[in-house]
């Protein structure tokens, strides 16, 4: 394994786990989402440092180590700079005070801050959507996190059409084409340290929020008659062309 990450979508499951209470076992409390983020970051820190201090030299790099304010900064900023962004701490403290409580955002100790700082060789970014006021995410990552190398570890287009040929996923082809062209542009023209890009997903698979009806796969899976046969979609041939010709078709 040449590249690996510690935790996938840390911000997503921490900000959404409270939506899934387990009666009798867990009832969400105010501030639990921030506690989850906090301890997830500490878990990343320990995993990264154990590898760095105990295994990196032994393995000689054969097995790799690695490890917008609330969404990215809450995770990336501590890993790169050693603490939460000042604006995040101030904002959470302000609204917590209005509620008559101490800040819902836990604090790192001096030792934790020292060990956290620089505890990643690259950053990972799962991208499925954007907003009209935040279309420069790669530039924001470059400018706020010392241009640390980053990897798009998930990006895809979910097909919800029910009356279309499942193999004719032209919208997905267009989506990935435009996205990759822009990623290449910011890497070559804006000096953004892009390491790579992974499309979600290889095959039509189970989605936690959409079961089997929203399909992200480059390969169609026949769930209708139970055969589970795999057939390449247009998007699969699109990525094959990229691999063969080393360019993004327009």
From TrEMBL:
Keywords: Glycosidase, Hydrolase
Domain of life from the UniProt record: Eukaryota
GO molecular function per UniProt: beta-glucosidase activity
GO biological process, one term: carbohydrate metabolic process
InterPro entries in UniProt: GH, Glyco_hydro_1
Record family assignment: Belongs to the glycosyl hydrolase 1 family.
Annotated protein name in UniProt: Myrosinase 1-like
Protein's organism: Frankliniella occidentalis
């Amino acid at each position: 394994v040449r590249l690996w990450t510690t935790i996938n979508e840390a911000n997503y499951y921490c900000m959404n786990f409270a939506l899934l209470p387990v009666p009798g076992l867990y009832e969400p409390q105010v501030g639990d989402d921030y506690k989850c983020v906090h301890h997830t970051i500490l878990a990343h820190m320990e995993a990264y440092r154990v590898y760095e201090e105990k295994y990196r030299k032994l393995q000689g790099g054969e097995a790799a180590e690695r490890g917008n304010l609330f969404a990215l900064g809450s995770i990336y900023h501590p890993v790169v700079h050693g603490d939460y962004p000042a604006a995040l701490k101030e904002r959470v403290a302000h609204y917590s005070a209005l509620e008559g409580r101490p800040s819902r955002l836990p604090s790192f100790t001096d030792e934790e801050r020292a060990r956290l700082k620089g505890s990643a060789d690259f950053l990972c970014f799962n991208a499925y959507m954007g907003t009209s006021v935040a279309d420069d995410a790669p530039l924001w990552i470059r400018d706020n996190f010392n241009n640390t190398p980053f990897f798009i570890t998930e990006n895809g287009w979910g097909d919800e059409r029910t009356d279309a040929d499942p193999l004719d996923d032209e919208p997905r082809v267009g989506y990935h084409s435009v996205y990759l062209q822009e990623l290449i542009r910011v890497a070559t023209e804006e000096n953004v340290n892009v390491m790579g890009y992974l499309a979600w997903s290889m095959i039509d698979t189970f989605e936690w929020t959409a079961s089997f009806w929203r399909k992200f796969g480059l390969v169609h899976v026949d769930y209708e008659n139970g055969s589970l046969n795999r057939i390449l979609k247009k998007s699969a041939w699109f990525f094959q062309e990229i691999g063969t010709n080393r360019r993004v078709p327009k």
